[in-house]
Amino acid sequence: GKSNYALCGHNMDDNYTLFSPITHMSDGENIYVTNGKQIFVYRKISTHVIPPTDIQVIFNTKETNQHPVITLTTCNWTGSMRYEIRGKLIKKISWRQASQYQRSLFPRRSE
Questions:
Q1: Any alpha helices (H) in 1-111, and if so which ranges?
Q2: Contact criterion met (CB below 8 Å) for 38 and 65
Q3: Which among 28, 26, 22, 1 has a CA at the least distance from the CA of 10?
Q4: Considering only CA atoms, which of 84, 89, 54, 90 is closest in space to residue 71?
Q5: Residues 6+ away with beta carbon under 8 Å from 61
Q6: pLDDT digits (tens, 9 = 90+) for 36-89
Q7: 0.85 exceeded by pTM
């Protein structure tokens, strides 16, 4: 929920495993992340295909310090390029105030 929260994961090219599904996300879809105490809701705003050497997409900037984002990166199925998916933070929800649906997105945890 602060600055540029960057996550990288493998694309297994099966539309299901690890980060494979993010390559088919539409702008406007929600991205949910938790730290176990809060759920952070981001709204997807862009997808770019970038070379593997384009690492500045994970850097914090003045803009991301003021307007937090999430940056998800994964390779294309050949590994020659990377998908960069960006979302803007739209809300933070305490675990206790989260809806049943929002809680169901994450493995069980003790209260």
A1: 62-66, 100-104
A2: no
A3: 22
A4: 84
A5: 4
A6: 899 999 999 999 999 999 999 999 999 999 999 999 999 998 889 999 999 999
A7: yes
